[in-house]
Design goal:
Strand content: 15-25%
Distance between the termini: 59 Å
Number of strands: 9
Radius of gyration: 19 Å
Helix content: 40-55%
CATH superfamily: NAD(P)-binding Rossmann-like Domain
Strand order of the largest sheet: 3-2-1-4-5-6-9
Number of helices: 9
CATH topology: Rossmann fold
Order of helices and strands: HEHEHEHEHEHEEEHEHH
Structural class: alpha/beta
CATH class: Alpha Beta
Length: 275
């Protein structure tokens, strides 16, 4: 009896913390992407990780490997549709795909540079579609899991999706686009037993936000954000927005008449160009 109890404790200790065994994450070389990879890494889990910085991506892979996960890493640019489709189609079964890769930038209290706006949309919108669309087709061809779901695709948007901030127009618009796209597509993909999740976090302590010179209320660690994100996905929530006070404030600001909102938002510090 004692031996059985001990064996059960050992088995529980090595159980992965989440139900997904085959996970693909873009933008995994730092910040939230790395924290998500480390959170799901466990014995029996295969992680497909991509990023643009080979050295930092390798550091993430090493960290996840120490947790017992099998790591398959690839240096990928999410704006390359052909390369992304080939990578995802060759990954094998996928329980969870997280389209996390993203870039940021603001106006610096001036006009947003056209090249920056184009770069933000290319990564944050086209890059998300280059990840999510082939993943959905891979999932559609695989059998449902124990929960009846063939697979899940999580899109990392932002609370900025709910506010048209003059200081970061392309960033806010790009995050709004993918948030609305994921929520709309989930309605149709449920018929194929595929779920989508729009993840809308607030300020996270990452290299991206480290360049911000303005106050960031409710700033959280990447590890905290990863846990909130994965808990929301596991619970089947379509929209995963946190922290709630900042989310409610953003929804309130977004509900104001546009001229009032612009007047209010223009009093706030603008995000710097390129960061």
């Amino acid at each position: 009896m004692g031996g059985n109890a001990r064996d059960r404790r050992i088995w529980i200790a090595f159980m992965p913390p989440y139900p997904w065994r085959h996970v693909l994450i873009t933008g995994a070389s730092s910040g939230l992407g790395r924290a998500l990879a480390e959170a799901v890494a466990a014995p029996g889990v295969t992680l497909h990780l991509s990023g643009r910085d080979a050295a930092r991506l390798n550091a993430t892979s090493e960290s996840c490997h120490t947790k017992g996960a099998t790591i398959i890493e690839a240096v990928q640019d999410v704006t390359n549709a052909h390369a992304m489709t080939a990578w995802i189609q060759n990954a094998g079964p996928l329980d969870l795909v997280i389209a996390n890769a993203g870039v940021s930038g603001g106006t610096g209290d001036a006009t947003e540079p056209p090249a920056q706006a184009a770069r933000i949309f290319a990564t944050n919108v086209t890059g998300v579609l280059n990840t999510a669309l082939p993943a959905i087709e891979v999932m559609a061809a695989q059998p449902p899991g124990a929960d009846g779901i063939r697979g899940r695709v999580a899109v990392i948007a932002s609370i900025a999706a709910f506010v048209a901030a003059p200081g970061a127009p392309a960033y806010c618009a790009s995050k709004s686009a993918v948030q609305r796209w994921a929520e709309a597509v989930d309605a149709s993909e449920r018929a194929r037993r595929i779920r989508l999740h729009a993840v809308c976090p607030g300020y996270i302590r990452t290299p991206m936000t480290a360049r911000n010179s303005f106050p960031m209320p409710f700033l959280m660690t990447a590890e905290d954000a990863a846990q909130r994100t994965l808990a929301g996905i596991a619970a089947g929530r379509l929209r995963i927005a946190y922290p709630l006070p900042l989310y409610f404030a953003a929804r309130l600001a977004g509900a104001l008449p546009p001229s009032w909102r612009n007047r209010l938002m223009s009093t706030l510090p603008a995000k710097g160009v390129g960061g």
